[in-house]
Amino acid sequence: MKRSASLLVFVAAKRRIIRASAVMAVVGLVLVLTGTAVAAKPGTWTVDDNGSADFSTIQAAVNAASPGDTIRVRPGTYYESNIIISKPLTIKGLPGGVQPGPAAGAPILDGGGQVADAFDLANGVHDVVISGFEIRNYAADDWPNGTGVGVQA
Fold first, then answer.
1. What is the reported pTM?
2. pLDDT of residue 66
3. pLDDT (tens digit, 9 = 90+) per residue, 85-120?
4. In this structure, how many other beta carbons lie within 10 angstroms of the beta carbon of residue 74?
5. How many CB atoms lie within 10 A of CB 103?
6. Is 70 helix (H, G, I), strand (E, B) or coil?
7. Is residue 7 within a helix (H) or strand (E), and if so which, with residue range?
8. How many helices (H) does the chain have, and how many strands (E)?
9. Distance between start and end Cα atoms, the chain
């Protein structure tokens, strides 16, 4: 009699484990199908104009980044214009300081005198942080002295 009681307890415990496993599987499937699973940790990308990093242009890094990612730009001169940002990102020039304005050795965005902007924020984009750059040589066609815009929203 004692053995059959133990067997009943074992069978009941096994059923509870199977039920709990089934519930967890269904919950996991619902999370995957509804896209409410835990979000991935934001990534960090590095840009270096000499090609020794993830990307050699800022625009390529922006295009590849996911919302919330950080793009770190190493010192150098980047001849890029109209870098289009259409998602929340942090773009940080290294070695950007904590004080306003670029620190010594900060990366330079050089427009080469083109009628253009350095960065263009797409309509409706939010939570974009840009810091630590020297932005120069962008022109505006409506300014006779050729003063362009660093960030256009």
1. 0.68
2. 97
3. 999 999 999 875 566 566 778 899 999 988 888 999
4. 18
5. 15
6. strand
7. helix 2-34
8. 2, 10
9. 81
